[in-house]
## 1
Amino acid sequence: MRVLVVEDEEFLAEMIAEGLRRDALAVDVAVDGLEALRKLQFGAYDVMVLDRDLPGLHGDDVCRRVVAQGLLTRVLMLTAAGTVRDRVAGLGMGADDYLAKPFAYDELLARVLALGRRAQPALPPVLRGAGIVLDTARRQASRDGRHLQLSRKEFAVLEALLRARGAVVSGEDLIEQVWEENTSYRTNAVRVALSKLRAKLGEPAAVETVPGAGYRIAS
């Protein structure tokens, strides 16, 4: 899942981003509304965590443009103003959810994950294939009853492959879904993550390489 955090308080933005990355999400950061729109134009984000009070271009205007352009990105609006009137206004302009500051990180994570599920085709929170059971809500994985200790990137790669339900996922698609845009070594990172993931999944091979096309879960 790819998330764009739009927050002008850089410390808070990085704190949110690092937390979400620890929970196996690919996260980019924008510090103002115009930067957010540029990133939305060139990147496919499942969820945007949007501060309402942004410099330059207000968060309300960013939200309106997301709606006007028909983007599939779900919007979680953050603001220090948490009255009922503020929440109604935020939702009325097209935000999918609203969270007042200060907030608990666990609640933010839960809301982002819920919005991410709405941004993608409806699938159960527990994904299965090739003997693998992936619980996306609890962030747990097993194969044939054996617990798998996966890194956040390995978990995210496996989730992307299982969500494809047997279809081929290209390396470019994995990069788009799992890695942040400022990762300069992403192509090699895909190969490294897949190599480690395959080793942890064990035999028989659960991830197949389709030459010239990408990867898929073995049927």
## 2
Amino acid sequence: MLTRRKFTLSLSVLALPALAGATMARAGHHSVMMLNADCNDTNVINVFEPAILHVASGDSVTFIPTDSGHNTASKRGMIPDGATPWNGAVDDELTVTLTVPGIYGYLCLPHYEVGMVGLIVVGEDLSNLSAVKKARHPGDARKAFRALLAELETQS
């Protein structure tokens, strides 16, 4: 059965290449979906897709509230020195342009404690990895960030 969520996701998948092609000429553009459940495993709830994103310096990332009840905010202590933090409103699409190389940790404020977190790596620069690892988190967010950082380190 084609639900509203599956329909929206299918439209997003079809539209992203067209949008990417239109914006590639001026700079890279990426999208992160804010979801109530993982696309591949509905038992995994409240996720960003993708959870880890690699971009070039100057690229933009749009956080899309595919499901309601989510926002995105950078995590203090988990962005590079000199980078601009962000804090979007719940259910609002937000686009950020990342110009400072390094690792950016971000979260959904309503679901932070249950582990709705993600990482963006700008310019393949892991120079702030030590600071990112030192950040403190409540509840399942600590476990979720540890898993993402472990995955990031195996990718490097």
## 3
Amino acid sequence: MTKEYRQPVYAPPKGAADLFLIRHGESAPARPGIAFPMKDGSGDPPLHPQGERQAIAVGERLKTEAFKALYVTKLTRTHQTAAPLAAHLGMVPIVNPDLHEVHLGDWDGGLYRIKAAEGDPIYRQVVEIQDWSAIPGAETRKAFFTRVRRGLRTIADAHPDQRVAVFVHGGVIGAALAMASGSEPFAFLGAANGSISRLVVQGDRMIVRGFNETQHLDHL
């Protein structure tokens, strides 16, 4: 009989961590003249009711995965999104100090969302140069990407050969996948609320395994 060589099934490299990056559910709307609550300089809105429904759907989608740990950021919306899955698995999420959303300086607290919707010239400049530094007091892309990489590396180093769920923000997912793929900096911005992306991390090496899975949200 002739020996057969079938196509291989992907497996992460030895010692790598398999990270599921989940964007938090939809957060409360921004309103002119009413700033979001703040935490350590970052806007900290709770989930919108739709975001709560998205969090439940995320928990249902992922409750059979063999996660060794759950991670969240310092911000309320990631804790609320992680809560249904944490309840299913009987796990307590760990706060990572580096994976909160990009600091938006004078536009934090909800103003960024308003300026973007109105097509403010500074927002258009941010998109053009693919860097938040055009906003007064905002974090630079270089600084943001550096801390996102550090945060992911910290988690991966703690979980070799393990699968981990990491509840984060759209900017964090965009930064992580841009660094992993070598794409333009803003190429992966816009992951849907409640979406799942996947990244395999081994030391400084990052491999994209998925982006913006949303099938579990189709019924909402």
## 4
Amino acid sequence: MHTAKVLWRQPLPSRPRTSDRLHFLAARAVKDHLAVLQEMADGTVTLAVHDSRRGKELWRQSLDVPAPDAIRGMLEVDDGQVYPPVGRLRALDLKNGEEKWSFGPGRAKARTGPPALGGDGVLAVEEGFGLIALDWVTGELRWRAPGRSGADLDVTLPPAPGVGEVYAYSSKSGLLRSFSIRTGKAGRTRKARGDRFYAFDGIPEAIVAVGEDYFAAYPYS
């Protein structure tokens, strides 16, 4: 038996032994970068990016997060940008944390929910309007689901991109709605229950719902 070689090590913030805070709410690695959502000892949340080869912290930003546990597992990263799950819908440069674009300047600032990447774009729910898709490079609006067909969608949940469609949930109506991932055209609806949804291209193809004390699968068709 061989002892694993330590490539790098970084200390975590100290906290009381009785603390139930999580050190990490989410983490994503892309090429040479490791992005992490980290809950600090005082309950604040920071977004930090490290060099994944050496562990060196490249940059760190504080996020305004009223309930840290609500964004556990919510972090989207691509080859060059990271998309914070709270606040304005925006893209930050992986290398230095500089804002590349922000959705909303010059218009009424409706709240947007956590983003998801799919269909070569950035997807999110816009409060009072429904599902939207942005160009990931420029942040320009590609489409907004027509006819306010998703005006009641939960703004606190990220969409679930699937094959050709994206799914979003309304806890008010108990409906899981599907939309064309290319155009935003509304598709089927189905009765469903869950706190988070995930789309998988498997056999059988299904939407997986996760709740407080269960998980379930709903067929695509």
